[in-house]
Hints:
The protein is mainly α and about 170 residues long. The protein has helices spanning about 70, 75-90, 95-115, 125-145, 155-169, and strands at about 15, 25, 30-35, 40.
Amino acid sequence: MSAERKAPDAPEAPARAEGSGEDVTVRDAVSAPDAEGVPRRATRRFPLFTRDTARPEGGGRAAPGDAPAPARQWPILAVLLTVGLGLLLTALDVFRVGLLLIGAALLAGAVLRWVVPDVGMLAVRSRFTDIVTYGGLGLVIVLLALMMQPDPLLQFPWLQDMLHFTVDG
């Protein structure tokens, strides 16, 4: 079996593979022999077809590997249990408190993603994207829960003026 592959229009330079007596042809400056001595292209370009996905930054276990499964994933469990409690309160007609709890859980998820180095399954995308997504959604839910009728706890006078302008105008 020949240990060389030829590429069209590529300069060839013979090199000796480690541990073998045969010459390996290295095609250009960005190709290098792999573990078996066969030249491969070591490029920084992304492949045409993705065959695997990398785990997101911080996607490792949040507890040691010998810990039980729930303990290894405590950040996502804390957020999900808080969101579940908020949904239960919303279903029991305590919707403002329930929505505030859901928003607070998402904000806590953003803080956990920022502070804790390994958050397990709470890491879905890059750290920055997760923080912006969790924090943005949590902030919007909290603000909407505070502005909710009847008896809003947070009022923006310009919002009422803007609504009248668009409806009346």
